[in-house]
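[audit] Reproducing an earlier prediction to check determinism. Same input, same settings, fresh worker. If the C-alpha cells differ from the archived copy the diff job will pick it up downstream; this log only records the rerun itself.
[audit] input (439 residues):
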Amino acid sequence: MANPKALPPPSSGAPKQPQRVGGIIGLFVNHPTAPNLVMVIMILIGLFSLTKLNRQFFPDFDVPMITVTVNWPGASAEDGEKNILELLEPELRFIDNVDTVTSYAREGAATISLEFKPTADMQKAQSDVEQAVARVTTLPEDAERPLIKRVARFDQIARISISGPFTEQVLKKYAKTLRDGLLSNGIDSVTLSGSREEEIWVRIREADLRRLGLSIEEVSARVKENTRDQPAGTLEGRSELQLRADSDRRTPEEIGKIEIKSLETGEKIFLRDIADITTRYKRDALIGLARGKRAIELTVQRSLTADTIKTMKLMSDYVERARKELPPTLDIAVYDVRGKLVTQRLGILIENGIQGLVLVLIALFIFLNGRVAFWTAAGIPVALLATLGVMYATGQSINMVSMFGLIMMLGIIVDDAIVVGEHTATLEEQGLPPAIATE
C-alpha cells in the first residue's frame, strides 16, 4: 500500500497574514450594524445641533464684575474719595470670592469695581454687595443712593447713523423712535451716541434776590430739596419697609413751580418769579457728524444668548419698515454690520466642505472603486456634523474662532480620508480580506 504523499512545507517566501488589530475598529468590522447606527445618530445629532447653535462674531465669555457707583453732585474728586470710597471699601473688600477691587473718584461721583473669581456665584455675590453697602449708613446726606450694577457684556451687531436737515432736538426724537422700535422688535440693547444731554439752566435775577432778602445758597437749597429723591423714614409692622419721596420735577415748568419764600402778606414767591428757566444742551458733550451734517449714532447689540444672524435680520427688517414711516429727508445708514462677517465665514466653511467633498470623490473615483470612494467621502460631512453635536453639548457657539478651527479640520479630514481609503484599497488588491484590510 502506497504511503500518502506528504504535503510540502509552506514556503518561507509566502506573504504572512497580518495580525488583526482588534479594539473598537475590530468591533465595528465584526459588527457592521453598529457603525451604521453610530453614523446615523451622529448625523441626526449634528443636524439638530445645527439649528440650535448660536452664530456670533466672538466666543461668549462672562464678566464676573459688579460696580457700585455713588453720585454726589458738586463734590470734588478728593471729597468723593474721603467721604465715599474710604467708607465703602472696607465693607466690600472682604466679600467672599472677590479677586480685585478697583476704585476711583471724579467730580460728582465715586465708583468701586469688584471683580470676582470665575467660579463665584454672581447672584449671591450681588446680594452680598447689596448687604455690605446697606451697612454703611454714614454716606453724605446730599449724595444719591448707591447704584449697584452687575456688568453685562453685549456683542455689537451693527451701527446705524441718522442725519438730515433737522434740529438736534428733532433728530434726537427720531433716534429715540428708532431705538424704541428696535427694542420692541426683539433687539437686546441699543445705545445712542453723538446726542447731547439736556440740562435745565436757572438764571436768578440778582435784583429780585436783594428785594426779597434771599441769598443764592438759600435758593439753591430749596431747588435741591424739591428736585431730589429723598428718604421718608421706615414703616414698621410685620415687616419693615423703607419709604422714599420721589420728585417728578423734570421740566422747566415744574421746576418753576418750586416755592422759594412765603411773604407776611400770604403771597408765595415761586422760582419762576425770580429766575429765567431754560433748557440747554451740555456744552462739552461730543456731537456726531455724517457728511457734514449733525448725526446721531445707534449701536445695536445682542446679549450672550442671542443669535447674531437672527438679530441682524430683525434689525434689517425693522429699519426697512422705519424708512417708509419716517421723513424721506432723514438719512438712515447701516454700517459696520458684523453679522455679514459671520455669514461670509460660514459661506467659506460650507464652500470648503463642498470643495473637499468633490475633490475627494474625483480623486478616489479615478484611482479606486466607486464603493470605497463613496464611503470615504461620506466621512467628511459625518465628521463635521458630529463636531457640531459636541459643540452644542459643551455649550459652544459658531463664531469666528470656532469656524477657523472647523475650516482647518476639513483640510485634515480630506487628507486622512484619501490616505486611509487608498491604503485600504491597496491591501484588498494584495489579496487581504476586506475586514482585515479595513483594520
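[audit] rerun output stored. Observation attached for the diff report: Residues 250 and 286 are 23 Å apart (CA to CA).
[audit] end
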